[in-house]
Design brief:
Layout (H helix, E strand, L loop, with lengths): L2 H15 L1 E3 H8 L3 H13 L3 E4 L2 E4 H7 L7 H5 L3 H11 L8 E4 L3 H9 L6 E5 L14 E5 L3 E3 L4 E3 L1 H7 L4 E6 L3 E3 L3 E4 L2 H12 L1 E7 L11 E4 L6 E5 L4 H9 L3 E5 L6
Parallel strand pairs: 4-5, 4-9, 5-6, 9-12, 12-14, 14-15
Antiparallel strand pairs: 1-3, 2-3, 7-8, 10-11, 11-13
């Protein structure tokens, strides 16, 4: 199928459904996800749609919701699920019994939380609000919730009270998520409120572990919250471009890629 024909089919589907997904388009058009992303980028440059994380929306939806759209927690949960689960399994290898661990809100860190059941003694601090049921019947794990203003889009607590709480603690490890990783722009996320919390989290941790699937590389969003040099370790999947691996390692960051072929 030629490029113009693919783009026509993408626009026809967008006209019907107002949103399209990279993975679904890749399967229906029988091309690679990178090809779909290139088509979406070219369509966006032509002013025909607005790209979002994992896909695109019609201009009508983009105008209605703002140009810097952010998918909901539930939408993100089903994107790159296998990669996120594999990243979470690898991430817990950085945790030791007795550690104080800070978990950012996000779907990848949500899977990390589920892996903590193997530990006998941990203190876990988080601004996510979906956590308690996943650590039931684990008396050795002390779970501390950061108060603040509830943000439904990310199922997290943000705002002044959350920032103040983070200013009072120090943790061994912080597992931070991101919407965008760029060698020049650093770590970014769609909103200032989320960026402020992530920035505070990084500042109170002895060790910062970035957990992100490879789709976030090369993306830049509205609000910057950190420099790559603030990250000690990056755990991602094998889809990360080689030049991004080199860029991270040149900054002294340990890069770990995970195998997503494991059957669960």
């Amino acid at each position: 199928m030629f490029g113009e024909e693919r783009k026509t089919k993408i626009m026809e589907r967008l006209e019907r459904e107002e949103r399209v997904d990279v993975v679904e388009l890749s399967q229906s058009l029988e091309v690679s996800e990178s090809t779909v992303r290139r088509d979406l980028r070219e369509l966006e440059e032509a002013g025909l749609l607005k790209r979002t994380h994992g896909g695109a929306v019609s201009n009508k939806i983009a105008v209605k919701n703002g140009v810097n759209l952010e998918p909901s927690f539930r939408e993100k949960e089903v994107q790159y699920q296998r990669e996120k689960q594999a990243i979470a399994r690898k991430a817990v290898e950085w945790i030791r019994e007795g550690d104080t661990v800070l978990l950012d809100s996000g779907t990848t860190t949500f899977y990390i939380l589920q892996e903590l059941k193997a530990f006998q003694q941990l203190t876990v601090v988080t601004n996510a609000v979906i956590s308690p049921q996943h650590l039931d019947h684990h008396p050795g794990i002390e779970l501390i919730f950061l108060g603040g203003t509830f943000r439904a889009q990310t199922q997290s607590m943000v705002g002044m009270f959350t920032e103040q709480s983070l200013g009072l603690i120090r943790v061994d490890k912080c597992f931070i998520a991101t919407n965008g990783v760029d060698p020049v722009q650093g770590l970014t996320t769609p909103t200032m409120a989320e960026a402020a919390i992530k920035r505070r989290m990084i500042s109170c941790a002895q060790e910062v572990v970035l957990v992100t699937d490879s789709s976030k590389f090369g993306r830049t969003h509205f609000a910057k919250f950190g420099e790559l040099e603030q990250v000690h370790t990056c755990i991602t999947d094998g889809g990360i471009p080689e030049n991004d691996i080199k860029s991270l390692r040149s900054r002294g960051i340990t890069v770990v890629t995970v195998d997503t072929d494991r059957n669960d």
